[in-house]
């Protein structure tokens, strides 16, 4: 009996020791493997970034832990494995049958973007603006002062991780996120087509792009690593290249409205349009399907949408949908030190520059822009019938996004 207890005690102590050893190893040794491909590890000379050789990648944390545990802490060989570099293929058109891409159309004339000579300076200015306002105690907005540990796991679901190249991307809906997700799938090889990883972003069907099971995101770490998940997140945030793309907040709202309420979308009709039409357009009996509603001329107006955003009851019922939730709530820019801040207004140049910095520009190109992308010049027309008081309230609601990411205050919309 005593022997059995001693045996169980030794197993427990051995397990605890092994876990502690793994953590120490990962903190002090394991992360060293990522240094070579940590593109933005400072300091570095302007225009040059220390990255891994293009045929070298790093195994996932799961693989590392599995090897270490299965070997009884014996040497298991290098963590790096050689992969054949995929040649850059000259795919120049979206795959036939991808309905949305075919309907919207791509502007292939800008497929090869010229990288501005001022990109380094531009990135420095964007990051400086972000850091200064995050540190400015006189500029306050909700959640600004909390630490990374205070962010609930469910709010980390927009941070996509690519362990093969040491990249973390925070996606913002209506800011080219479909194509950036495609890029992340190609880089991480997280999706196969007949057993072969996708090599061209536009070959990936849209329905797979937005399937949450396709991507490794921070909010999934808890299920994998339990109480050690935050520790691993912090290691990756320190070592990996972190980027996001943003957009003029008001233009993003217009784009979200066009996409979700001017086109037939069953989910958004039932979840959002029906309540809006009842609350703000005084409709009591509404069709159950979006096609019936559209045939009857029952559509949410832009005014209904703005009222919905400003209505204090909206947030009490549930957080803003991700398509109109503020960027600071999606990506936590005051808790996460982003290495690269791209903008939709300069998408082609920024995307080309980022892929070069990541040293993956020979593996793929960023897909081109849509021809009918919502333009900033449309703001005055869209807001013309929105009361001035509503516009001013709306600005206050999205002010943090305007300020943090350097977008000028739309004075013309906020004055008589």
Describe it.
The protein has 416 residues and is α/β, with parallel strands linked by helices. It has helices spanning 2-30, 32-35, 61-70, 99-104, 119-135, 177-188, 206-209, 221-225, 229-239, 249-261, 266-280, 290-295, 302-310, 312-317, 327-331, 347-357, 379-383, 388-404, 411-414; strands at 56-58, 80-82, 159-162, 167-170, 192-193, 196-197, 241-246, 340-343.
Number of helices: 19
Radius of gyration based on Cα positions: 24 Å
- Strand residue content: 5-15%
Uncertain stretches of 5 or more adjacent residues? 23-60, 65-115
Tell me the strand order in the biggest sheet: 3-4-7-8
Could you say how many structural domains there are in total?
2
* Strands, count: 8
Span between termini: 86 Å
Structural class: alpha/beta
| Helix-strand sequence | HHEHEHHEEHEEHHHEHHHHHHEHHHH
The description of the largest β-sheet is: 4 strands, mixed
Shape: globular
Q: Please, what is the average pLDDT?
A: 81
Binned, the helix content reads: 40-55%
